[in-house]
Amino acid sequence: MGGSQGARSINQAIVNDLQKIADAGVQLVWQTGKSFSPIAAQGLEKITSMSLKAFDFISKMDLAYAIADVVISRAGASTVSELCIVGKPAIMVPLPTAAEDHQTKNIQALVNKNAAIMIKDTDTRKKLVDTALALIKDENELNTLKNNISKLALPNSADVIAKEVIAIAGF
Predict the structure, then answer these.
(1) In a structure prediction context, what are the per-residue pLDDT tens digits for the chain, which is 171 residues long?
(2) Among positive and negative, which fits the CA dihedral 6, 56, 134, 141?
(3) Contact (Cβ atoms closer than 8 angstroms) between residue 63 and residue 82
(4) What residues make up the domain containing 118?
(5) Which helix H or strand E contains 166, and what residues bound it?
(6) What is the DSSP letter of 98?
(7) Is the CB of residue 161 less than 8 Å from the CB of residue 147?
(8) Is the C-alpha dihedral spanning 52, 58, 64, 68 positive or negative?
(9) Is 3 inside any structural domain?
(10) What whole-number distance in Å separates Cα of residue 63 and Cα of residue 71?
């Protein structure tokens, strides 16, 4: 997934390697964004696997996360937070044009804790699908990433923020 607009580099890497994904026997739930959806549909027409599905938008991300063994995504703050809460192994591709390169900083915090894998946007076509397929087969690495990303979750963050606001306001 690349957010509601999709992520060009992620989409291109996946569409270029659809046959490789199908041959690996994995299930793919792919949020393409509206503009890439026709290209994804054309690519999927050439593949006989029923395990590869593309959607322009997924409104029930909780269900998508629930069935995912690995999440491939951009590295926005909300997505990083969600992945920590749901404890999903992730390969993240930071948007290189994000303000002050904040997505790279977001994912680097996870990478430093061995809680996620980062692939540079410029490397997605060469590395993304192979990295994902290797990770899916590596139960030890999946468990390591899952355990480490789960440790970074802040499930009561809204309460912490609300209490701080109330304290600052003097109530």
Answers:
(1) 877 778 999 999 999 999 999 999 999 999 999 999 999 999 999 998 889 999 999 999 999 999 999 999 999 999 999 999 999 999 999 999 999 999 999 999 999 999 999 999 999 999 999 999 999 999 999 999 999 999 999 989 889 999 999 999 988
(2) positive
(3) no
(4) 8-169
(5) helix 157-169
(6) S
(7) no
(8) positive
(9) no
(10) 13
Bridging pattern class, strands 52-55 and 117-118: unpaired
Give the Cα separation of 23 and 129 in Å (integer).
Answer: 12
Number of domains in the chain: 1
CATH number at residue 39: 3.40.50.2000
1 domain residue, yes or no = no
What's the pTM? 0.91
Torsion, Cα 64 69 70 76, to 10 degrees, reads: 40
Nearest-angstrom CA–CA distance, 87 and 48: 32
CB 45 within 8 A of CB 71: no
How many angstroms separate the CA atoms of 12 and 122, rounded? 11
Tokens coding 114: 């061995």
Identify the sign of the CA torsion 131, 30, 90, 97.
positive
Whether 52 maps to a domain, the answer reads yes
Quick one: tokens of 156?
């009561």
